[in-house]
Each structure stands twice: as C-alpha cells, then as structure tokens.
C-alpha cells in the first residue's frame, strides 16, 4: 500500500535583524500583548480583574469540569496503549542505533526536577493533610475528616493528583514534540505536534495561535508555581528571622503579607533572570545539582526523625487502594446541580425551606455539623432525620464543588506546565524508545512522588493522629505546614539548620523553575532554537515578574494566590484542547509511519 510522505516543511518566519532577530515577531507580539493587557488590567482595575477572573473561572468550570477530568483520564490510557503495543513501544526516538544522550540516573534526575520542583516542598505535607480533612469520601459523609478512617481516601486522592495521571499530562506533550523532532527532523516547538492534522496551515496564523497558547499556558503555570513557592519562602524566612513586616498576623494563623510576597518575588525573579542570562551550563545545571542533594538530605531527615514505619505501611496500602479505584478516579466526573434538582430531592417537610437549606447543604468545604449549626428560624427546627436527608440531597453539588476546586485545579496546573516540562523532556530524551519514555516519565517519577508524599506527609498526619502536634500543623497555612512539621519533629540548633536548608532549597527550586520557564518561552518564540539572546530572557523575566506581582495586588483582601489560580485555569483550557488534538495527531502519525515502514521494507 503506497502512502504519501508526511508533511514536514514547517516554516516559521523569523526576523533577520533588529530587536527580534531570530524570533517570530508574530508569536512574540501576540504573547506579550496578552500578558501586558493582563498586567495593565490587574494594575489599573484590580477589583474588576479579580472579580471577573473569579466569575469567568467558575463559569468555565461549570461547563468544562467534566471535560478536564475525562481528557486527563484518556491521556493515561492512550499512553499505556502506546507503551504496550509492541510495534510502537519499541520505536526509538531518533532512529535505530541512536544512543541516549544522558545516563538513566541523570535523565531521571533532570526530569523529576523539571516536573515538580517547588511543588514538592509546598505540597509534600499540605496535600496529604488537606485531603485528610476533605476529600470526596469525607464530602459524602461516609467518614469524618482528620480521622483514622479518612487516611485511606486522603492518600487515594494524593496519589491521584501526583501520580500516573499527572505525569501523563507532561508526557503527552513531551512525546509528541520528541517524536516529530527526532523522527521527522522538525522544529522543537508546539505547532509541530499538530502537523499530521493541519499540515501547511500551521505555517500561518493557526500555527502562531498554537504556539502562543503554549507560551500563555507556560507563563500562567509558572506564575502559580512561583506564587506558591514565594509564599513558602516568606514563611521560611519568618520561621528563621521572626520579621513581622513580611507576615499578616491578624488571622487565625500567620500568612505572608502582600508586601512580603512582593519583596520575595523581586528577590527570586532577580536571581532567576541572572541565572537565565548566565546560560544553562552555569545556571540551571548547578542549581539542579544542588536541588537534588538538598532534597535527599531533607528526605533523610524525615526518614530518621519522622514516622517512617507509618509512612511505608501507608505507601503500600494506599498504592493498592489507588490501583483498585483507578478507573473511577480516571473518569468519575461531576456536573453542577441546579437549584431545581436540589429541591426535587428534598423531603416534603423540607421543601418550603429549599432556598435557606441549599447554601449549607451544597457547601463542598463544610460539614454536616456545620450545616446544622448554620441554620436559622423554622429550618433549624426540622427533625434530625430530615436534615440528614437534606444534606444527602446536596451531595452532587458538594462533589462537583470539591472536584472542580481541587482535582480540576491540579489538572489545569499540570496542563499549564506541560509546554514547559514537555519541551524539556523532549530535549533530553533523544535515543529513548517510546516505551522507555512512557515508563520512565510516567510511572517511575509517580512512584517516587508517592514515597515523598507518604514520608513527609505521613509524618505530619501521624503527629496529628497521635496528638503530638495538637492541631498545630492542621491549623497552619498550606505553605507553613512543612516548617510547623519540622518544629514538631526537631528542636534546637538542628531545627534552625534544617529550616535554613529548606529555605535555600525552596529558593533554588524557584530560581530553577523561573529560569527554565524563561528559556522555554524563548525557545517557542524562536521556532525551536535553543540559543536566544540575553535581552529576550531579561524582557520575559520582567514580564513574568509583572504578571505575578500585579495579580497578587489584584487579590486585595482575598487570598493573594486566588487571582493567579483563576487566571491559570482559564489560560490552561485552550491548551487542554490542543493536547487532545496532539493525541489524535500522534496516533495518526504512528499509524501512517508504520504503513510507510512496512512498504519500504
């Protein structure tokens, strides 16, 4: 069977002179225009920006929550099929005889650092603890939050958010880019991954739009990562120095103040720009090596002084539970519940009070006791059995609210990060087979994540379960939980030493993430060229700083990270659709290349 050659003549016009020499002016100006508009909007009308972003985010989640859940579930099964199929899994990126550029250990270390970075520091304790208090099993009322019974479901969803599904998001982008770059000799840029579907149309405006979506998603994904990281960096500085001006001490627990966040942001982004202009060899390489060493030391501290036996038993039982529930976790999507549907599910004696009952009964972050205590007037006088039935009637909306606020946030975050991490994975994976790429980049790092989350997070939970922490870790802000856990484990000069080490580790992770993000954005805008001028690195470093800073300001009295989160979920949605098309395009390319190879042989 004869089949025509694939389209590979991808032309990305780049300027030959001036400020944008070597860059696509269209991609650069479109990307900068979108980001500058967002910055000006948040700076001039902060209340409007925060309100509109929150409202738009919720409207999109009501429509697309199920889409996010199902497509991420499809990603992991798509990749599993590619790895299992013998004719596809054995294909080598770059052709037969090409040897991998990096050893297995170096390859894994770079991939793991790029894929997680500061997220490991912020959420190693915060994620398991948060899910211990609230997850779909707790929301349904089957178990109580922060109880021994809630431990299994807490780690089920911790594994979901940091497991095979999450890493599959990176690999869909990374494998697509690597396949076309190393088997068809095409530019290492986002539009290359859609050429089997759109061909020469990608040489024009459509191609620019695809690349711009990748740049915008990367900026917003990196922004949220840096936002969380800066918050933890300030928490660490406060733990070391006690400087009150960087903290807001008016709430139940100290949290970083806007002034503190902006000061930390300026320091970190200044160092990131310096690292970026110094070059990958001197900047990212040395910081990555330091990150790995310090991470292993921190892990060793928790192994020796933490609840290691509790953590390891949790690791095994949670992994079995995660695999048993894998299918429902992959495709169990919830939609919003209308007021009419809620009212239809109420007992007859509660129906007249539907409006008064709905708010508490559908609150994903509340509890049955909180719902009952919040009732007033005649609604509060309803029998206990009726109130239980009312709370049960609101479960579909509670599950939707929880899923869209937690799991979908994570999927949007991983998706927004996928152009950055995917392009990096493609760069370092020449010479690997497709099966190696999938196993090495999906399953191996997920198992390491599980260990990290159970050793650090398990220690925090065990301290709370046994009463040693007495609620101190649960009561701390997410970004302070790691430092509070260390304070419960250690004391004296050794605690001070490890706290300083953690702050240095957070700083290096943040600088590496921002540095790498700046390099990736410039790679996309230069049509896949990895060598770009320092002036562009500085400009994009300043734009990234402005985006994060103005969205922190726009939050006003709300959580400073809310505006960043909302902007990221909105920005990730178009790229999610691009990733769905990437899967279709890659399946088509693999199928047709298989036919061509048989014809040639």
Task: Please give a structural write-up.
This protein is an all-alpha fold and about 600 residues long. The longest helix is centred in the N-terminal third of the chain and has 39 residues. The protein is globular, with a radius of gyration of 25 Å. It has a two-stranded antiparallel sheet with strand order 1-2. The chain has 27 helices and two strands. Strand 1 and strand 2 form a beta hairpin.
* Beta content: under 5%
- Main β-sheet description: 2 strands, antiparallel
What count of helical segments does DSSP give?
Answer: 27
Overall outline: globular
| Helix fraction bin | over 70%
Helices and strands, with pairings:
Layout: H1 25-44, H2 46-84, H3 86-89, H4 104-115, H5 119-133, H6 136-139, H7 151-162, H8 164-183, H9 195-198, H10 205-241, E1 247-248, E2 255-256, H11 258-278, H12 284-305, H13 308-324, H14 326-331, H15 339-344, H16 354-361, H17 368-373, H18 377-380, H19 384-393, H20 395-405, H21 407-428, H22 434-465, H23 472-475, H24 481-489, H25 492-525, H26 534-554, H27 562-600
Antiparallel strand pairs: 1-2
Summary?
This protein is mostly helical and 601 residues long. The chain has 27 helices and two strands.
Labels describing this entry:
single chain; mainly alpha; two-stranded antiparallel ribbon; 2 strands; globular
């Amino acid at each position: 069977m004869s089949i025509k050659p694939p389209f590979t003549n991808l032309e990305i016009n780049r300027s030959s002179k001036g400020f944008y020499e070597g860059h696509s002016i269209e991609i650069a100006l479109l990307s900068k225009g979108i980001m500058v508009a967002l910055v000006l909007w948040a700076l001039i009308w902060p209340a409007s920006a925060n309100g509109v972003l929150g409202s738009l985010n919720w409207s999109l989640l009501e429509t697309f929550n199920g889409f996010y859940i199902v497509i991420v579930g499809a990603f992991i099964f798509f990749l599993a099929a590619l790895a299992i199929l013998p004719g596809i899994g054995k294909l080598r990126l770059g052709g037969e005889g090409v040897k991998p550029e990096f050893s297995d250990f170096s390859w894994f270390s770079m991939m793991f650092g790029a894929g997680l970075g500061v997220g490991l520091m912020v959420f190693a304790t915060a994620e398991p603890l948060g899910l211990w208090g609230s997850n779909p099993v707790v929301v349904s009322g089957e178990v109580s939050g922060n109880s021994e019974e809630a431990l299994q479901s807490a780690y089920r969803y911790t594994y979901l958010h940091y497991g095979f599904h999450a890493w599959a998001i990176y690999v869909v982008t990374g494998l697509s880019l690597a396949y076309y770059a190393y088997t068809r000799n095409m530019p290492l840029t986002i539009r290359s991954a859609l050429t089997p579907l759109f061909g020469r149309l990608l040489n024009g405006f459509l191609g620019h739009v695809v690349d711009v979506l990748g740049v915008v998603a990367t900026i917003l994904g990196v922004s949220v990562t840096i936002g969380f990281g800066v918050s933890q960096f300030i928490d660490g500085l406060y733990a070391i120095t006690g400087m009150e001006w960087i903290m807001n001490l008016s709430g139940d627990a100290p949290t970083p103040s806007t002034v503190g966040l902006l000061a930390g942001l300026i320091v970190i982004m200044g160092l990131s720009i310096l690292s970026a202009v110094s070059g990958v060899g001197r900047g990212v390489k040395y910081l990555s090596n330091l990150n790995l060493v310090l991470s292993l030391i921190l892990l060793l501290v928790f192994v020796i002084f933490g609840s290691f036996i509790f953590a390891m038993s949790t690791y095994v039982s949670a992994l079995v539970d995660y695999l048993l529930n894998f299918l429902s976790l992959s495709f169990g999507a919830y939609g919003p519940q209308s007021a009419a549907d809620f009212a239809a599910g109420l007992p007859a004696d509660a129906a007249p009070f539907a409006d008064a009952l709905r708010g508490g009964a559908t609150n994903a972050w509340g509890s049955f006791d909180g719902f009952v205590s919040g009732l007033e007037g005649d609604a509060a006088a309803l029998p206990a059995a009726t109130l239980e039935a009312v709370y049960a009637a609101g479960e579909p909306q509670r599950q939707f609210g929880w899923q869209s606020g937690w799991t979908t946030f994570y999927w949007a975050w991983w998706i927004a990060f996928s152009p950055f991490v995917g392009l990096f994975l493609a760069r370092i994976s020449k010479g690997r087979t497709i099966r190696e790429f999938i196993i090495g980049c999906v399953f191996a790092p997920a198992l390491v994540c599980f260990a990290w989350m159970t050793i650090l997070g398990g220690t925090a939970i065990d301290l709370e379960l046994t009463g040693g922490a007495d609620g101190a870790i649960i009561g701390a802000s997410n970004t302070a939980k790691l430092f509070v856990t260390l304070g419960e484990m250690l004391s004296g000069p050794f605690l001070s030493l490890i706290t300083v080490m953690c702050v240095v580790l957070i700083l290096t992770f943040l600088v590496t993430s921002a540095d790498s993000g700046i390099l990736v954005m410039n790679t996309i805008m230069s049509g896949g060229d990895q060598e770009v001028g320092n002036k562009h690195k500085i400009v994009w470093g300043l734009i990234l700083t402005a985006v994060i800073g103005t969205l922190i300001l726009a939050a006003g009295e709300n959580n400073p990270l809310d505006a960043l989160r909302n902007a990221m979920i909105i920005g990730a949605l178009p790229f999610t659709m691009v990733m769905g098309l990437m899967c279709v395009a890659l399946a088509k390319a693999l199928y047709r290349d298989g036919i061509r190879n048989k014809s040639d042989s």
